[in-house]
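Run log, item B.
One chain of 211 residues. Sequence copied directly from the ordering sheet:
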Amino acid sequence: MATTINADNGVVSGSAGLKESADSSGVLALQTNGTTAVTIGTDQNTTLAGTLTTVSRGIAKASMPAGTVLQVVSTTKTNVFSSTSTSFVDITGLSVTITPTSTSSTILILVTSNFACSAAGIPQSFNLVRNSTNIAQPSTTPTFNGTVTPYLNLFENSLGWSINFLDSPATTSATTYKIQGKTSGGTFYVNGRGSADFASISTITVMEIAA
């Protein structure tokens, strides 16, 4: 006996040992016993002759239209980081790793953070880094440069800053995006100040965008 599957409303008729299951990604699979012909109802009532083993309902990531968000990964840093380094160092906890599904995908990076310094009038620099490569860099390299170079002329005041950057890593390997920072003097802080009376959070979020 033939089995009919209506793709518009999911109605299954007939009796051919048809079973329905869902895999770990939630895609619906319809399987016959491997010996019975299956008819799939479409707008044209197309009939597939022969034996149908599996029917899956879902769209592969590789088939999604350009601009579709394929996955989102985010990290939130809630504790305080401080350093006196005058060369770039990792901001502990302000990193995120994503594994792109296609080499043509772009990665949208969104960072929201803050800083304070123990001395007034001391420039800070923060870099957006992909693995070990600086990205989102200015075209000139003056004394103070980086992805962002926030500056405060007041002692231990806190200033927020953000990054919005679209990267093209051209890989399907695990890729880490992170923030590095340095100071030109004194101690710089992320998520806090010299006084324990102040605290905030920082986030880094990456989104894979279909090309």
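Observations after the first pass:
- The chain has no helices and 17 strands.
- Confidence is low (pLDDT under 50) at residues 3-13, 15-33, 35-49, 52-56.
Flagged for discussion on Thursday.
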